Structures are given as structure tokens and as C-alpha cells.
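User: Is it possible to get a 3D structure for a protein together with its bound compound? The compound here is magnesium ion. I've pasted both below.
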Amino acid sequence: MADQQGKTLVRFRNIAIATILVATLVQFLGNVGLFNNYYLHILTVIGINIILVASLNLVNGYLGEFALGHAGFMAVGAYVAALIALKIPLPALVRLPLSLLGGVVAAGVIGYLVGRVTFKTVGDYLAIITLGFNMIIVNAIQNIDYLGGPRGLTAIPKGTNLVTVAVCTVITYWILRNLVDSVYGRMWLCIRENAIAGELIGIDVNKVKNLAFTIAAAFAGLAGGLYAQYQQFITPKSFDYLKTTDILVMLYLGGMGSLSGSILGVVAYTVLMELLRNVLGMVAPQLADLRMLISPLILVLIMLTRQYGLMGNREWRWLLPDRKQAEGGDA
Amino acid sequence: QQNGVKIGVSAPISGDIAALGQSTKNAVLLAQEEINAKGGIDIGGKKQKVTFIIEDDENKPESAATVFQKMINQDKVVAIIGSQSSKCSNAGAPIAEAAGVPQISPWSTNPNVTKDKKFVFRACFIDPFQGKAVAGFARGKMKAQTAAVLYDVASDYNKGIAEVFRDEFTKAGGKIVGFETYNTNDKDFSAQLSKIKGASPDVLFLPNYFNDVPLQVQQARKLGMTCKFIGSDGWDNQELIKMGGKDMEGSFFSNHYSPDVDRPASKTFIANYTKKFNTQVDAAAALTYDSVYILVKAIEKAGKLDPKAIRDAIANTKDFDGATGAITFNGSGDPVKGAVMIRIDNGKFVFDSAVN
Amino acid sequence: MLKIENLTRSFGGLTAVDDLSLHLETGDIQGIIGPNGAGKTTAFNLITGIYRPDQGRILLDGQDLSGLTSDVISRRGIARTFQNIRLFGKMTVWDNIITAFHQRMGHGFWDAVFHLPLFKSREREVCKESLAFLERFGLAERRNELAENLPYGEQRRLEIARALATNPRVLLLDEPAAGMNPTEVEGLIGLIRDIHREFDLSILLIEHHMPVVLKLCNRVQVMDFGRTIAAGDPHEVTGDPVVIKAYLGDEEDGL
Amino acid sequence: MSILEIKGLSVSYGAIKALEGIDLRIEEGEIVSLLGANGAGKTTALRAISRLLPIQGGDILFQGKSITQVPVHGVVSLGIAHVPEGRGVFPSLTVQENLKLGTWANKRKSAIPDLRQEVYRIFPRLEERKTQLAGTLSGGEQQMLALGRAMMTDCRVMLLDEPSMGLSPLFVKEVFRVIKEINATKGTTILLVEQNANMALKIAHRGYVLETGNIVLEGTSKDLAHDPRVKEAYLGHQ
Amino acid sequence: MIATAIQQLLNAAQLGAVYALIALGYTMVYGTIRLINFAHGDIFMLGGFVGFLLVSVIPGLPVAVMIPLAMFITAMIGVMIERVAYRKLRNAQRMSLVITALGVGIFLENLVRILVGPQARQIPAQLPNKVLKLGGGVVITEDKILVILISLALMVILWVFVNRTLIGTAMRAVADNRDAVQLMGVNLNLIIATTFAVGSALAAAGGIFFGQAYSIDPYMGIDLGWKAFIAAVIGGIGSIEGAVIGSFLLAGVEVLTVAYLSSNLKNGIAFGLLIILLLIRPNGIMGRAELKKV
Ligand SMILES: Nc1ncnc2c1ncn2[C@@H]1O[C@H](COP(=O)(O)OP(=O)(O)OP(=O)(O)O)[C@@H](O)[C@H]1O
Ligand SMILES: Nc1ncnc2c1ncn2[C@@H]1O[C@H](COP(=O)(O)OP(=O)(O)OP(=O)(O)O)[C@@H](O)[C@H]1O
Ligand SMILES: CC(C)C[C@H](N)C(=O)O
Ligand SMILES: [Mg+2]
Ligand SMILES: [Mg+2]
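Assistant: Yes, that's possible. Here is the predicted structure of the complex:
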């Protein structure tokens, strides 16, 4: 316990402020051409993915369920936000928050409804039901011409950049951390560890599970809304189970039940993929072929050497609330 | 200014349409070899070697966006060829547009791709054009009274053409007796085909890719369907015949070029390509090859590596003599370009007629 | 206080609990004994809502509990431990207890989302209370260890502590002395006696260790094949030939 | 030569040392009990012998030959059966299937029907519940099944980890009687870990006392039963 | 009308048979080590390519040799994958293994893409594949009858193997308690390897039939793998007969949705129905309720 009483500079609040400041600076430098926009892009994508992965961690990590439909809720958020941005004439300053809020609420509501149904089952049956909802959502969008069908929606106004993503990521983390470090987070862990014992200390298991599911869906919706207004183009295929498995890979790579792990998992995976791209590309264009061959090998190797993912069940100290830090929480 | 021109290529090297990624890569490498053999691109009288940076976009929009960002900002390419699928081009286009880097997609046929964009071009015709051409052909030359359609509902290309075909065919006095869909990666179409069989159409329109079509045709024949088949540019690949065999005989499809047409540009490309890679040309390869040369010509015409100038030169391309025919841009991102109808005859793609 | 009337539950062809009735008066420590497979644990499962009874009623202070879910029953004031210990293994000892305090948090969802002042003060409060609790059970030293890493005896104690943390009026203990040697059992007897007094509890206890039953219970009920075969004062009941034949075995073990 | 001899056995879980070099010796045909408080390392010792745990030091000899390089299933084939703590029955298999798996390593296939008869004679409850899933048996029933299953292996040494845990008094006596019977009629050597020290010392020939990873006492059962330290720590004040 | 209905049922049967061939392997592995082997669909693909390569490299190789040989080779690959990528994680949390399996799957897809090429291929038909006319316009091909029969036969054989043999009992015991099963003298590694071998061999057979009746490509395993996973779960995962029933049910729902509702909404409606089914039977059709013994 090197730091005394949690009164160090490395605290959530300071890191959060620093993150936003750095993001603003980097975005500014990028805009004036002093910072490589490719890196800027990678950072933005990382931010969006962190929201996705961390929110899924609530369900798959803390709650210990195996949900396979996260991309579906992302789709709901993305489409609702995109529609608001596209169809309602709003000043840019209002448009972004309003559309994001729309995405969050819509995804949250859908998540709540799906959760109501889903939590009648557990384990792999739950996996299938969530996967099924993901497919149903994608299939529905494909068939709704108003949503562009398989062609998707183009020309969505660009509302997102690194700064907005950083702000959203920080808020997400603040809320997730607060929840995890509260009676709700503890109840989720209880259910993961032993649902029957949880019930017998008076936890309304289904209600508490659905709370996690709804929150996770809502944040997936936030990520979707950011994504839609960053990429300016969305198509249903971007939200199918391949996307869900990408999210899962980053989640488990980082480690279940660890918000720090979700950051690490996303960063490690994204950086790995881009490093491979650059290294292989530097050698010869033919080697672009090998990227998808090498990356899964590295993934398997990491999992073989770190069974619990990079940070499984551990947290960086600064993510913990001061109170916990003072008690000497995890490294 | 240092020597060498860098051009980015965003291609689906891996993922569900990796076969097209392969063709893309082949065509680019062939063009690179040809250009550099001649000393490079002639820019203001000085020859500069060209390097193509080929990146894998996995046929995923997110990856395409990353690839575009990398090529533009990291590799500092002067222009981008790609991507193939419309969904990837759509993800890349806003980036190219914002950066002011010209983009030519070989084969993104979704009308949205170039919409309201100054820097985004394509080397192919668009879905509505093709749907209309095929519908006209079915009504006209094939004299079909009734038609059915089976298409991949999850794919923008297939769905786009299918819907235009339906509307145009009906407008031309025909009757659509079946309009069935499947999902990407389905391999069993018997349920849809059994349903279509009940309506016994004169022709069955299959605006799908060459890896699905042979299965659809085989299964239709095995169910005892006797109608003719007609398709779109997604058919253009020798695999169609390799897999479909004699069931494909007598079918028609619309395409960007014809292998047996008497055009020197097509002929030399096809000969060189076949020789170098020991495989047949397909639409992806031909269109990519044309995209590269449209760009190279434009760079030469601009006489400098200035994106804006290159962009203007592309937009003003007139009667470019490509492997897929004459291409003209009238200032917009979409070329004025004809289609051809191909007939499958003794296991060969044979020119049937031209549509403009 | 707790009144069970004609409780019946069968699995397939087997009637695990058959027409069981039982009265637990306020302040009682009552024992349930009986051969393996007699239906004792099943009776606990019925009382705590893990199984639904086929027939019969469970009344707590006159209110019918049958058909309610486990969590509701817990909130009505019944807590239990399990024959096979069920702790939250990957949580710390402390968190095991704090979680059981969830009823007493007294703040709302949004307080937790934004860590508002009310949340913080309540959380501090509950931490303190739970620490006191741990101290009471001699587990304070171990508070930051994962529950699954505790030795067996301490796991048992933690489970009892967790049950008590839900502030029950009735505590059900399923073989708390299993796996303990006679000396350890003596410690356990002391513990149960103390908590019974301190927490104002009525206790229902399943046990195969006769010393526990004899020293703690003011009444026992003997089950066999789901039915009650004897009930009453522990010393009398354990002298009953029926009970000896079905459950205790002859005085001399003939080894 | 002892049938089972343990020399300087050390086992740790990560940083936690569970056994710090213990020595045990068991002669053919003996019942030896291993006593110790919760967490003393008794289970650890048994799991190390049957090779379920990797060992950090020392040697385990079966009939004079080291078995530290033998895999778990090999140890069983040599004739050492281990009835684990918590019984370890297969909950989703029926009683019958559980017993059947017990014969996996039994080399005398012809003896199996007789063995089964014997198990059913000793535990008639198991025969009644032949087709019930083991997971739904009561605790005591599961213990019977675990013992019966070990008998089916036709082993020479049985390692029993708290076989009386959770059993009714009647049944505890029964189990100890059966253990004695198996030992007497078949000559099976038995290493018995028990919390019920009174009973264990009654049927065992000799005993060891384990405290926090070290053997602190050994001797004949009689001596141990009268040792004040044992009385104080394990037998309670009766 | 009736003829079309019968035709559609036949269509469903052949699609179901294909799902079943993959789902059986899924369920085998799951029933033993509780691993959702996300690479199983890719093993199926690999099996198809092994068959394809055998036929291409040794023209004229009779089916009766080719199929067993391909099954054997694929089984060995399956065993190798378990050895290299899964064994070390056997005692880790389940999800680490799931992700590793996903990684293995992606690796296999890309390996085949690079080595054999990304195109779709058909394995030259070696099974009889004449079209049989059943009257009223109802048709079926011989190879499809064969596939249906084989999948049913395999189900029976596997069922007997898993439920009636000692090895099968050991496999189920592995799922319950890995330590205890070793204490019976069972070589855990051998049992698990056997499971992977059998599962992979089945997948290979499935891949070859599939490659003859339809086509194979490096990515085919993803979708089919998911479908088979879904079928296995619906049937009650771990249950052999459940896997087959689930497969036919999934295929039936898909085909009938196309036939009588809307092909546009195939996935939507099919999954909607399956979700409803799972809500009615939360442990799948043949699945046993989790033992809730406390
Ligand atoms: N879920 C279930 N399904 C089938 N049978 C069950 C189930 N639960 C319990 N049983 C059966 O009911 C009977 C009573 O079991 P129970 O666990 O209540 O016994 P018990 O009295 O607690 O025994 P022990 O002292 O051994 O723990 C047993 O025969 C058991 O096999
Ligand atoms: N998997 C494990 N990881 C870490 N520590 C462990 C593990 N298993 C046991 N221990 C520790 O090793 C020590 C010895 O444990 P062991 O289970 O051998 O004791 P025991 O004598 O069998 O006790 P009991 O009578 O409670 O069964 C204990 O301190 C225990 O906490
Ligand atoms: C390569 C193909 C996927 C291109 C298709 N014409 C499209 O627009 O998407
Ligand atoms: Mg019990
Ligand atoms: Mg022990």
C-alpha cells in the first residue's frame, strides 16, 4: 500500500479530467494537422469500444451471465440516434446530446424488455435467447425501408469526435464504477457467485439481474449513438453477431469483472490489430493476408498465459473510490 | 518532393467476400507491375514509380474506416482505390471527402456511395441502371411474361437490384409471380424455390453473387424447375461455371464487360491477367484495374500530385478506354457507362448484346 | 412464531416431506433430527421458498408464506445456512456481510449511480456496522480475504454471520456442526447460544451431532421418510426406542 | 515393507504452505487414522497421495516404489482408491452408473457381479435407488454411494476423507462398521481422515495427528486416545 | 397444396439433417467438458476441405475410403487443437476457453483461406445423387435421403455410445466432476481427446456431405456453427437426441416460415419462435432441469 489514504494524484477524478483535457488537445492538434488523424481515429474507436465492452462486463463479468446480443442494443442506439440527427432539424449543440439520449433511452427500454423475457432462463439458454434478439433486431432493421434496409443510413451529420467520445467514456466509467461499488454491484457479484444464496439473503434476483441488463443495454445504445455520428454511416450488418463476438473477445481478453480490464482489453486488441497492419504492411502488401491469421494466434497465446484475461477480477487503484483505496483494495 | 506515388487500396482480403479481395489484389499488382515497367507515372514530364498500399478491410465498415484513416494520414496516399462493397465504401467515403483525397470504388453499386460527395467516384454503373437493364432484357429479348426473384435480403446490392427489377419488369408489362429472399450465407434455398416453383415463372432472376448462384440454380433444377435464369454482375466469376456446370447453360447476366468482345483494352488485360495469375478475370479484377488506370490517367493529366487537381481530372475523364469499356464522368462521381448482357454457352461467357 | 401445517412435497414417486407440522415458539431453539434422506433439508427448502409445497401451509406470525419466492421470505425475516456451504466465494469476507445488509442501505438507485452524499454516508455507516458484525464473529481480521480461501470452520461461521446480517427473526441452521471435531463443536454450541440471546432469535436446527441437539434445543422433532415419528423434550425423545431404532442406533456401537 | 510410505511430503497452494514435510507409514492391512483440526492439511495429504495435487517435495512410496511420477488414473490402477471429501459422486449419473464407473480400473472383471452384490448387501438403500440420479440423493445416501463406488474398484488401499460427515448417528456407526468389515474381511488397508476422532480411534490400529501442516503426534490408537493433548484438541469434554 | 407442403417438409428434413451433423459434435464436446466449442463450425469446414483436398489430390479415391480417411484426419486435427489450445485452460474459467475457441476458429478460417483459397468449392459428387420423383411434383435427391438417414443413424449410434457404454458414462461423469472421474482410474486426457476425436470426425463427415450437396468455403463454419449451436441448445445441450431434434426443429421452423409466412422475416420469425420455445422449456426440449438441490 504505497499510497497513503488515497490522497494521491492518481484518482478517478483527476484521471477523468486529464483524459478529457488530453482528448481535447489531441483533437485540436488533429484538426490543425499537427496530430496524425489515423491515431486520432484509433483513439476515438477505442473510446467507443470501451463503452461497449465495459457495459457488457456488467452482465458477462459482474453478473456472470453469458449474453450474446450486445451488438443488437448498439444497433438500437445507433439507429435511433441517427434518425434523430437526420430527421429532426436541430442546432448542432442540441443535436448530439439529444440524439445520444434518444439512443440510450431506446436501447435501455429494449434492453429492459428483452431482459424481462431473457432472465427466465440461465446459462447457455440465456446466451441463445440474447443471440436470438440480436438477430431479430438486425433482421427487423433490414426489412424496414425507412431505416434504409440493408443499404443502411448514409450522410448522418458528424457529431462525434474524440472529445465527445472521451466525455462519454468518462461519464460511463464514472457511473459504472459507482454502480459496481454500491449495493447493486455487490448484489450482481452475489448472483454470479451463488444465486440461491443471494436469493436467501433477500435479493430479488430477477429484478437485480434485469437492472444490470438494462444499464448495459443503455450504454451499448450510447456507444451506438456515438458510432453512428462518428462514422456517419450505419448498416445492419455492422451489428450482427460478428460484432458481438468482437466485443466478447475484447471483454474476455481484458478480464471479466474488471473495469480496468475492459480498458486494457480494448486497447490491447485494437493496438494489436493496428500494429499487425502496420508491421505487415511495411514488409509487403502481400502480407496483409496474414493479419487475420496471426491475430487469433496471439489472442490464443495471451489467453493461454493469462487465464483470467489481462486483469481478471482485479482493478487499478485509481478506479476505486477513495474510501476503498484507503482500505487498501487491489493493486 | 520525394520520388514515388503512393496509392491506397482498401480491399476485402479476409472476410465473407475474400474471393473478391483476391481479385482486387491481383488486379492492383498487375497494374503496378505494368506501370512501373514503363518507368512509372508521368507527372509533369517526370516519371515516378507507383506503390500501392493494400489494406484488408475485412469487408467491415469499421475496418474500412480505419483503413482509410491509415492510408490517408499515415501513408499519405494521393488517392484511394476502394472499397469493393458499398457498405465499406460508404464508411470510407466521408473520410476521403473530409480529407480531400480522391476515392474511386471499383464496384460499389449502391447509389448512396457517391451522393453529395466531390471526391468520391466509382468505376461501375449503379444498381438501378442494372436492374432496369436486366428487366428490359427479360421482357424484350427473353420475352418473359412472368418472372420470379430470389435474392439476399441482407445485402444492399442484391436487394437494390431486385427491387428495381421488380418495378421495371412490372412497368414493362410483365408480372412478378414470386419475390423471395434469403440471408447471406444460407446454402439451402429449397424452401424458397419450392414456393417459386408453384408459381412457375418464365424466368428466375438471381441478383446474387457467384458463390450462391450455382447452388440456387442446381437446387432449382433438382426441384424440377424448367425456367430460364438471369442474373447480374455478381455472377461474373469462373467459379460460377466451375460449380454450376451444365445447369448454368443458357442463362444470361448483365456485366460491365465481355471477355470475348473485340476491344484491345479488354483483350490485353484479360490475357495478361490470366497469364500472371493463372486464373480467370472477374468483374472485381476488371473494375479494379480500370479504377487504377482512371486514377493514373488523371494524375498524369493533372500533372502534379495535388489531390484537388487529380479530383478534377477524374471528374473530367472522357472516353477512358478501359477493360470494362468506355468510361466518361460528366462531373459527377458516377460514370456514364454501358452494360453488356452475357450468355453462358458451352461453359463460356459469351457476349450477347449491349445495353446503354 | 413459525407454524408449519401439514406440509407435503414429493419428487416423482418419492414423498420427501409427508404431512409435516411444526411449531416454533418465539425464543425456541428447536431441533430436527432424523436419518439421512428423511426430508429435513427438504423441509428447510420448503420453508425458505426454494421448493413449493404440494400441500400445507407455512405461517410466520400468522401470515402465510407458502408460494412466496425465497427473497420475499428472507425479507419477511427467515434466514438460513446450507448443508453444503454456499458463500459468495470470490467476494471478500467483508463484502459477504455488507451485501447481506442490502435491505438497510436506505438510499435510492440514483444515489448509487452518482454516489450522492446520502449514498456515501449510508455506505460508511453500513461498513462500520458490518465491521462490528465481523468483530462479533471473530472474522474481522479476515475481512479482506476471499471467502473461498477461509478454512472450513470459519466459512461456517461466516455463513451464520451472513444469515444474521439480514436481520432475521427466525434462523434455520442445516447441520452447522458437520465436519467439525468434538472440540470445535463445543465452540459452535457456545456461538449459537450467544447469538440466540443477543439477536433475539428463534432457531430451527438440523443436526446429526447429538451433543449439539441435547445442549441447545428445548424441543426436538424426529423425521423419518418425511413423517414425524417423535417429538418433544430432547432427552426423552432420544430415549424413545423408535428413535433409537431408526436414527441413533444401539447404545453400544459394537465396534 | 510398508504398503504406503510418505516421506517429507510438502504441498503448497501458491504461497500458502499446506503441508511442510510430513512422514507417514502404513502397513498392509492396517487402519490408520489421520486426525487434525479444520484446515490442518488432511485433505491436502490425501489429494497429494492420489496425485490430484502436484507436490513440492518429498516422496510417496507404494510397496516401496515411488508413485510421484504416476498420473492420477495410474495410481488408481495400482490399487489405491480415494473417497474424496464431499463424496464426489457424479450427480447427473444414476446410482447404478456411478457404481459402474467404479469398475473402470478393476482388473478382475469376473468379480464385478459379486462386488456389486456385496455393495448392495451393505447398502440396501443404494439398491432401492438404483436408477435415481445421484445428485438428488440425500447427503447420507451420497456418502454410501461414494463408499460403494470405491469398493467396486477392488482396491488394496482406501483413502477415506471424512466418510462420516453429515451422517446420522446410526449411520456413522454403520459406516465405521463397514470400514472395519472391509478391512477385516478383505484385508484392505485404510487411511482414514476423520473429525469424529472418538470413532476413528476406536476402529483404527494407529493414528497420526496433523497440525498446520506438520505431524505433531503419532502412536497406537489407544495411546492417542489417552493423550491429554489429543483429548483437549479433538475429543472434546465428554 | 399438399404436394408443396410435403416438399417443404422434405426440404426441412434435409436442412435439419445438416444442422444435426454439426450439432451432434457440438453436444458431444459440450456434454463432456462444458465447452461451447465455437471452433466446431470451423472444424466442420475443415473436414469438408480435407475431403475436397483428398478428392483433388487422389482422383478416383472411392468415397468409402475418402470419408473415413477424412474423418480420421480431421479427428486428429481436433485432438491436436484440444491438446495445444484447450488443455491448459481446462481448469480455468469457462469463458477463457470460449474465447480461445473463438480464436482457434478464426485461425482455421484464415488458414484455409490462405492455403486453399477463398472461393467456394463443391466436392465432386461421389454419393449417388439422382433426383427421385415422388409424384405430385415432389422431389428429393438420393444424396439428401442419404444425409438424412446418416444423421439419424449417427444419432442412434452416438446415443448408445454415450448412454450405454462405459466410456460414454465416463464422458458424462467428466462433465460432473473431473477430479472424481480420475479417482475412478479414468484417464481424463484420453477421454477428452476421444470426445474431440469423435466430435471432429462427425463434423468432418458432415462437412463432406455438405460439400457435395451444397458447397464449402472457408467461412461457412461461422453461420452453420451458430445454427448448430442454437439447435443443440434448443434440443437441450448435452443431449444427443436433443441435438437432432433441435436441428430438425430449427430447420422446420426456418423452412415453414419461408414457405408460409415470409422469407424476409425468416430469421426474425424463426428466432422469435425459438425464444418462445425456450421460455416454455427453459432447459431445451430434452434438457433436464438443473438440479436445484440445496
Ligand atoms: N430435487 C430432488 N429431486 C428428487 N429427489 C429429491 C430431491 N431433493 C431431495 N430428494 C430426495 O428426498 C429425500 C429427502 O432429502 P433431504 O435432502 O431432505 O434429506 P435430509 O433429511 O436432509 O438428509 P441428510 O441428513 O442426509 O441431509 C431424499 O431421499 C432425497 O433423495
Ligand atoms: N485450493 C486451495 N487454495 C488455497 N488454499 C487452500 C486450498 N485448499 C486448501 N487450502 C488451505 O490449505 C490448508 C489445508 O487445507 P485442507 O483442506 O487440507 O485441510 P483439512 O485438514 O482437510 O481441513 P478440513 O477438516 O476442514 O477438511 C487450509 O489452510 C486451507 O485454507
Ligand atoms: C463487391 C460487391 C460486394 C459490390 C457490390 N456491387 C456492392 O455494391 O456492394
Ligand atoms: Mg440434509
Ligand atoms: Mg478436509
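The radius of gyration of chain B is 20 Å. The mean pLDDT of chain B is 93.
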